[in-house]
TrEMBL record:
This is Outer membrane lipoprotein-sorting protein. It comes from the Bacteria. It comes from Chryseotalea sanaruensis. Residues 1-20 form the signal peptide. Keywords: Signal.
Amino acid sequence: MKHKLLTAIVLGFFAFTANAQTADEIIANYFENTGGLEKWKTIEGMKMSAKLNQGGMEIPLEIIQLKDGRQATIINLQGRVIKQGVFDGTDLWSDNFMTQKAEKSDAETTENFKLSIGDFPDVFLNYKAKGYTVELAGKETIEGTETFKVKLTKKQIKVDGQLTDDVSFYYFDTENFVPLVVEAEVKSGPAKGQVSQIKFSDYQEVSNGVLMAFSLAQGVKGGPSQPIAVTAIEVNPAVDAATFKYPEGQ
């Protein structure tokens, strides 16, 4: 009887161990299931074409990101071209929707942005080398799907001159190991104190064989979200440097 009981305990332990996951293993499975690390490492730039649904109106936009940190979101709003979140390698700037003039971000916002330059093409790529830590915070069911909740802690950022922890939570599908939701506390602005939420779905293969989400929805947790439908993702596109240049002399 004792022998049988011991055998059952041992088998139960190994069954539990086989099913257990660490945050590191979840991330490794994520990259493996979306094309493999080697393919992810070949990405030097991306150009995403998408449509933003705002109040029933579809607004075309283009998001360009390069490995050196340069980026731009280009919005076509009823014939007007508006650029948002543009980084030229030194300055972070956006067009003001009201005045249609380019405005540079303040020093704190720019410095916080520079801390994340190494996160392209994925925040979890080489996360240990960047000094980031990950922690499995349990499981949660998101809209009927069981997920692993992974806590990601990056380098501290500044908020009103004070160093503040930069923490976000990623919810990975327990079956496919792809992120379905990411949440983080809003540190400043009108939504300060609320939790931002981005949902990902419709993973498709892009030109280099990597799988990426083609459907996104962003907003605050518990509130309305803004859907974004991606129509195409081009990997390693040719991009004119003038795309990121701040328009001097306005």
